[in-house]
């Protein structure tokens, strides 16, 4: 019996390896200036009619990945009709704030710099996207709207406006707390949460906001304001779980990010095609199919919650990224690290050594071999290999042979 199992397992992995080697599509370059998109047509064909495309990254400082994603965004916007770009950044600032900002270069670019995480806006390899392309689309007939879905309220716009916005909706809803002596303390905690470690204050705030949510008037039950309150509440729950060193702090955040993204996709931008920019650990689906290891913490993530909805799953294409060699690290941390070597019989070593960039569509594989669901090693979640049924975790993979970390942007401070 064991011999039969090993034989089936070996056949399955050979099938995947053979498929990758025979169906890999070479990508000529990752330069955002390369506007001959013919080499990206294979990715476009794989995406097909998908309305939501999620672009991952192994870490938040992967310079070649950011270049590749910028080029892909241009292709998706100009050739495939995608007109919304959603970042793993401040939901309120990039929703309410983006709607409010004047759509001119000298207004757009400072807004992006101050409200999208600096791991991207301070990275030189993202300069073309943030300080050239996005604002230029507003000089054409096809603009690229910006939004965000992260429950963490970190942007300058949120620091300036969130408390006022919350006050306005609670007053409109005639929430009893507004007239209480605790109200100012409640509002002020929205600003102080990032500097306090007082778990008691966290608990009081969470209980208050939960009571508000539970008693919202029926006519506001599907409103943006209520979703925002839930997002704020979950952010504080995640922060409290982190302070208590509880393992679910990331899952709390990811579940709310999925809810925010669903609202963007199916309410605010329901007639639009959306590109999602986030870490691969957030966008991947079926996380239970990644074997537990140092690179797999076992928490349910945004992609898992988002694709539990059958329509969202059908309309979404998840593009993961992997790399073979090199260094990694974030622009916010001076310490860089060497990426773990690719496993000898892993995905990265199935790609010919002379190929710099490539794409593999797992969708075709699943159609050709629907019964084959086999584990194989790949660096699909972080810069370390994990064994997973990767064909069920991502819909396709963008391969980069040599990784290197971001350089500091000279435009971010202008």
Automatic annotation (TrEMBL):
Keywords: Hydrolase
Alphabetized InterPro entries for the sequence: Emycin_Estase, Hydrolase/PRTase-associated
EC number: 3.1.1.-
Gene3D superfamilies to which the protein is assigned, alphabetical: EreA-like (biosynthetic domain)
One example GO MF annotation: hydrolase activity
Domain of life: Bacteria
Root EC class: hydrolase
UniProt xrefs under Pfam families: Erythro_esteras (PF05139)
PANTHER family: ESTERASE, PUTATIVE (AFU_ORTHOLOGUE AFUA_1G05850)-RELATED
Name of the featured protein: Erythromycin esterase family protein
